[in-house]
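Running this now, will post back.
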Amino acid sequence: MKIISVAKNIAKNTAKNIAKSVAGKPPIWIAFLCVFIILALVVVGIIHLAAYFREDITVSASGHQNLAFRVFYLENDIFDENPMPPNLNFLISYTDYIEIDSSFTASFSEEMQIYYSYHAEKRFVIRYMGALTGDLNGIVFEEVIPLSETRGELVSDRLDFNRGTYTVFPKDHIGLYFEFVEDQLRQMAEENVVAQGLRGFSADLLIDFTHIIQAPGFGLNEVVTQGYRIPLTTEIYTLSMTGRSNFDWAGNVAGSGATITLPRVVIFVAVFALSVFGLLYTIKLMRSDCDKKRREADSILKKYSSEIVIYENPVDLEKYKTMTVPDFNELLKLVINLNKHIMCYRDKTQTQFVTIVDGYACLYTINYD
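Update: finished.
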């Protein structure tokens, strides 16, 4: 209550000072300013309260990578179907090329700022034959060949990648394997190295597709890498899947974006009270000014009723040259000296006094608004 009382006094004094500075003009702009401040405070208050009482939001996202392959054989007298059925084991000596289709889809529980990147690559690796499990253990040589790469950002609740078809020719890499084996044997002979129990080497071609999905505003950061492993140094082979094909993510976003503290409440209440009482006091001043002008018009009509004729319609001033006087007493001088009468017209907005002198309309108007 003390804060409101202080704000009320400040509002009154402020309104009085401003009213004096406008030299008797109705301070309408002050009322508009107060209304604007009040509306702005109401909007800010609603936003802060909504943010303060809003519960934490649970957001989620999921993504899935889809891969498919087709093995095409060279022309031959045994196999008449191309591409080969994917459920079979394949023969490297018959293989001409392999087509791999890659696509990726991610969905989000709500729209968010998403940053994404994608890259596809071939990796030719030679490993020691002691590690035939298909993992990366025992690698002695690796060559990485980029296939494609892209990155970007968007605001959406869905993300779709369809990178089309990649064509792989396995035999293009077998020649490099033979070069490696030949050079390694030559190196052992030149260096007079004896490797007891050496089981030889094997070669694999790995096709990897990597998608990185990030939404920093929600704490989302997922990497999905999936691909195929193609053995090159065995006659009978299959395409085995590597990596993982999907992700599922969920997180909480703090709902309260505003902190309500006592100093903020005090300032808010003080400014709001100042604006409200300033508006009310300004309206009071405006109404008081209007009433004062009405009383002036009533007083003139009562005091000089014998010299004033009231008309139902306003005087047609277009017929005369109009001259305004600053005060009714100036008009009264003309009436007395020239023995004229005063015409009056009044409505809800004004009272108008007119005296016609030699083609001139001498006018004194009291506007209520």
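The first strand starts at residue 57 and ends at 73. More later if anyone needs it.
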